[in-house]
Structure formats: C-alpha cells, structure tokens
Specification:
alpha+beta; GIY-YIG endonuclease; three-stranded antiparallel sheet; globular; GIY-YIG_endonuc; UPF0213_domain
Length: 105
C-alpha cells in the first residue's frame, strides 16, 4: 500500500508588504511557525505577522519544490496576478519577460 502525502506550495504576505514563497507538508502548522517566529533565520521572522494569500496542493514533493522555485523567480506583480487569478496579466507578464522591449521608454 502506497502512502499518499500532500505538499503545499504557499505564498505569504508579510507585515512589510513583501512576499514569501515556501513549501510544506502541513500548511496550518507552518503558518503557525512563521507567525510564532520558530526559526530565527527565516525570512519572515522579523516581518510578522504574515498572512496566507495563496496555496497549491501537490502529491509529489519534487513537483512541489519545482513549483516553489518557479514562484520564487516570479516578480511581485506576477505573484499578485496569480493569487488574484488574473490569468491575462500572468500571460502578459510572461511575454514581457521572455520578449523584453528594445525601446528606451
């Protein structure tokens, strides 16, 4: 019998309006840990409180980690478009990154 696990890729909004992207197998516990400052070296430690603004569920940890890395590479605007379900903006922001403007303005 194969055990199934759930992994969450999540985005937190920090007190300073920055975003933090992470992955965990227990979202409720991890959010609690972020807000309680369990890890002195965590990005969110001095940016508490944090609020969960987005999460995705995966059954494969490798896929979850790949997605976490992908989201960490996204711009602030693209992350905001994602958790606002603005798919058109995500497409536009993806195009502009892949095909940068050659104009100076």
């Amino acid at each position: 019998m194969k055990l199934t696990h759930n992994y969450h890729v999540y985005i937190l909004k920090c007190r300073d309006d920055s975003y933090y992207v992470g992955v965990t197998n227990n979202l409720e516990r991890r959010l609690y840990e972020h807000n309680e400052g369990f890890n002195d070296h965590c990005y969110t430690n001095d940016k508490r409180p944090v609020v969960l603004v987005y999460s995705e569920l995966y059954s494969d940890i490798k896929r979850a980690i790949l997605r976490e890395k992908q989201l960490k590479g996204w711009s602030r605007k693209k992350k905001e478009a994602l958790f606002n379900s603005d798919w058109e903006q995500i497409k536009q922001l993806s195009k502009s990154k892949n095909n940068p403007s050659t104009s100076s303005g």
